[in-house]
Amino acid sequence: MTTDVLIRQAHILLPDGQMLLGDVLVKNGKIRDIASFIDTNIDDHGKVIDAEGLTLLPGVIDPQVHFREPGLEHKEDLFTASCACAKGGVTSFLEMPNTKPLTTTQSALNDKLERAAAKCLVNYGFFMGATAENLPDLRDANPSCGIKIFMGSSHGHLLVSTEEEIEPIFAEGSRLIAVHAEDQARINQRRQEFKGATNPAIHSQIQDKQAALNATKLALKLSKKYQRRLHILHLSTGEEAELLRQDKPSWVTTEVTPQHLLLNVSAYDKIGTLAQMNPPLRTEDDNAVLWQALQDGVIDFIATDHAPHTLEEKGKGYPQSPSGMPGVETSLALMLTQAKEGRCTYAQVANWMSTAPAKAYEIAQKGLIAPGYDADLVLVDLQEYRPVLREEIVSKCGWSPFEGWRLTGWPQYTLVGGQVVYEKGHIHTEVRGKALQFGISDNG
User: Fold this and answer.
1) Peptide bond before 371: cis, by omega within 30 degrees of 0?
2) Which one-letter DSSP state was computed for residue 112?
3) Based on C-alpha coordinates, what's the Rg of the chain?
4) By three-state DSSP, how is residue 363 classified?
5) Per-residue pLDDT of the chain (444 residues; tens, 9 = 90+)
6) Which domains does the chain have, with CATH numbers?
C-alpha cells in the first residue's frame, strides 16, 4: 500500500542538472513538492527518510534486460530479477522476447504481464519478438514498448537475418524497432574459419566488428527508407559510433552497455567465459570511442543487456558456454563511480540511465525528479566505496563480471511509485510495480 514519504535533506538532482540540498514530499505515489525545507507532518502510516549525506536521483530505467521467465527460470525469474533491480536502483525495466515460449503473440505478452503483476517489485514492460511470420502481432499487440529484431546471434524463429525478411517489418506499422545488429551470414562464415577453437577470446573475432557494422548499416538503410523509428541496441564498436556520428536521422537512437564502456578483450584472460556476451567485448580503442560518442550525444543512453546464465553453464567451456552476463545490480554504481572519478557528471548519468530512456520509449511521468512525476527514486551514497562481492549478488545466477571492483554510489533506498522497495540492505518483497505504458511523451 502506497503511503506518504518525506525525504529529508538529500542532495536532490533537479531536471536542470543542478543539485538542491532539501526535501522531497511524496503523496499517492507522486512527487508532490521539492524545496529546501518542507514544513509538513507525515501521518502514522507515512515514512520519513533521513537522507543526510545521500544523493537523490531518478530511478534507473533499464531498457534492455533478459529476465528468463517463462521457461528458463533456472537462470533467473521475474521475482529474483526485480529484487536485483531494487537493490541496484533500477525502478523500471524493458524485457526481451527470447523466453520459452517466445514473446511473439498477444497471448504470450499477456502471460508475461500477468506473471509480472504477481511477481515484480519494480515497473515492467515487454518487447514483442519479430519472426518472419508474425507481422499482425508486431503491429497490434499491446502494451508493448517495441519490436525486437535479432538480426544475428539468435537461433530458431527469432533469427530474422536477411534483408528480404527484415524489410517487411520496417515497411509495415509505426512501432519502435529495436535491433540486435550483427550479420548472421558473416558470423556463420567466421565460425567455420575458427572451427575447433576453444579460447573464449576467439568469440570477439568470430562475431567481429565487421559483423556488427554490416547489420547496423542495413538497419539504418531500412529505417531511412521507411522513416521508421529505429533503436540500435548495445552498440559495441567505434566504427558503428562513427557511422552514426555522420549519419543518424532524428528518429534513430542507440544505447551502450557498461560492459562495452568498461570491459574489453583483456577481460577474457581474467574471467574467461564470464566475459562472453553478444555482441562481444571489443578493444580499448572501442571503449574510448564509445565513451566519446556517449558524451557527445551520438549514443543516447545506457542499458545493461542483463542476460544471466548459471556458473555451471558458463563453466562448460567455449564454444559450448552461453553468451551473456548479469548487470542490473551494478550498472548505476558503475556509472556513478565513473562520475565520481571525473569521467562524466552525475547529471549525465541520470540522463543516460533515466531521462533519456523515458523519452525514447515515451514513458510518461518518469525519468526526472519534478512535481507530478512518479516517485521512482533512488538515494545513493557517493562517499563510501564497497567492492562487488559474489556472495552479495541477488540475481539468481550468483556472479558478476565486475566482481572485486570497488564502486561508490551504491543505493541505500529505492522507491517505486512512492513505495520503499529497498532500504539499507533489506528488500521489501511485498512491494509490486506496475505495467509501463508507452507512446505518451511529456518528457521534453
Assistant:
1) no
2) H
3) 21
4) coil
5) 567 999 999 999 999 999 999 999 999 999 999 999 999 988 778 999 999 999 999 999 999 999 999 999 999 999 999 999 999 999 999 999 999 999 999 999 999 999 999 999 999 999 999 999 999 999 999 999 999 999 998 778 999 999 999 999 999 999 999 999 999 999 999 999 999 999 999 999 999 999 999 999 999 999 999 999 999 999 999 999 999 999 999 999 999 999 999 999 999 999 999 999 999 999 999 999 999 999 999 999 999 999 999 999 999 999 999 999 999 999 999 999 999 999 999 999 999 999 999 999 999 999 999 999 999 999 999 999 999 999 999 999 999 999 999 999 999 999 999 999 999 999 999 999 999 999 854 433
6) 5-56+370-387+406-427 (2.30.40.10), 59-360 (3.20.20.140)
Residue recorded with cell 561508490: 408
Angle between helices 238-246 and 209-226 (to 10 degrees): 20
Cβ proximity of 148 and 166 under 8 Å: no
Cite the beta strand spans of 14-122 per DSSP E.
19-27, 30-35, 47-50, 55-58, 60-65, 90-95
Among 62, 19, 38, 4, residue whose Cα is nearest residue 354: 62
Residue with cell 563480471: 401
The pair phi, psi for residue 341, each rounded to 5°, is -90, 5
DSSP 8-state assignment for residue 355 = I
- Compute how many other C-beta atoms are within 10 angstroms of the C-beta atom of residue 389: 10
Unique residue bearing C-alpha cell 531500412: 222
Catalytic center residues: 305
Rounded-to-10 torsion of CA 246, 248, 250, 256: -120
All three cell numbers of 265: 578483450
Picking from 245, 249, 246, the residue whose alpha carbon sits closest to that of residue 220 is 249
Sole residue written with cell 521475474: 78
